[in-house]
Amino acid sequence: MVPAGTGRVEAGLFLLGFLLCSLAGTNSTVAPTGTPVSVTPSGTDYRISWGFNISGATVEIEVGDTVTWLWNQGAANHNVVSGSPTDRPPGVLFQSPLQSSGNFTVQFNESGSFLYFCQPHSSIMIGVITVNSPPTLPPASAPPLSVTPSLAPSAVFITTTPTTAPTPTTPTPTAATTTTPSAIPTTTPTPAPLTALGTAIAGATAIGCGSVTTGTTVNGPTLLGSPSPETYFRFVVTDPVPRQIIFHTCVRATYDTLIRVLDATATAELTFNDDADSAISFCTGLQSYVALTPSRPGVYIVVVE
Predict the structure, then answer these.
(1) What is the CA radius of gyration of the chain?
(2) For a tag on the chain, would you pick the N or C end, based on fewer CB atoms within 10 A?
(3) How far is it, in rounded angstroms, from Cα 85 to Cα 96?
(4) In sequence order, which residues have a C-beta less than 8 Å from that of residue 94 and are 6 or more positions away?
(5) pLDDT digits over 245-285, tens only?
(6) DSSP string covering 121-147, please?
(7) Could you tell me if 56 and 33 are in contact, meaning their C-beta atoms sit under 8 angstroms apart?
């Protein structure tokens, strides 16, 4: 495990050692052609390996950049001189001493193309530096004006000419008009008419536990899809404890009957019976017997057909 903070230092030492080995090696190429290797406050520094195996002789830079020639062989003397062997401009723009090792740096502050060569070996050691002007930036917009209000208020003089004041007049009072708001008419909404089934439920006969009710299906409605006329009863469960309730027509019915038990709106059938089971001794086969155990209090509609 590397101690805290050590990894960053080891990585920095390794990278520094690698660069030092690259610069100190014999016959090594320091930088690819036209590639900057370091940045200085004055611009970018380009480096050229200078010797018989010249590398990076043609470089394109910008105004303010520098070029450094690095001698890569120690057996022969070389120098760097501006111009060319056959066409040298008046005066020498730059010239290094004749040496077998070391380096030479020139900063280019003007645009243009600058030839250079080695005087002892001008036939094979020659190059050109192309210096480009920096891109022209649009002029900066003028800063917004800052207006500072004066601390002293400006004096304002108003000259008035007095005029004769008009004689005041006393207004004549007028009788007040009283408006009695009209009464807002009120209407009592007319309830929607009940459906035939709703009318049958509303007129259902109330029954309770232990009651015996005599009725007839003669002239009753046929609302549940059966051709047999119907009679409606309403049974209310108030006890929250489930108890079994039995509805039957086994005592006085003298004809074939059917019992349906529906929910309070008569839209769901909970149970029904057409002919009583033969095990019920006091019922004949044509009479009906229904047992129901409600799970909660509520209203139940009992229909006899």
Answers:
(1) 59
(2) N
(3) 15
(4) 80, 81, 82, 106, 116
(5) 888 888 767 778 889 999 998 889 999 888 877 778 778 77
(6) GTTT-EEEEEEEPPPPPPPPPPPPP--
(7) yes
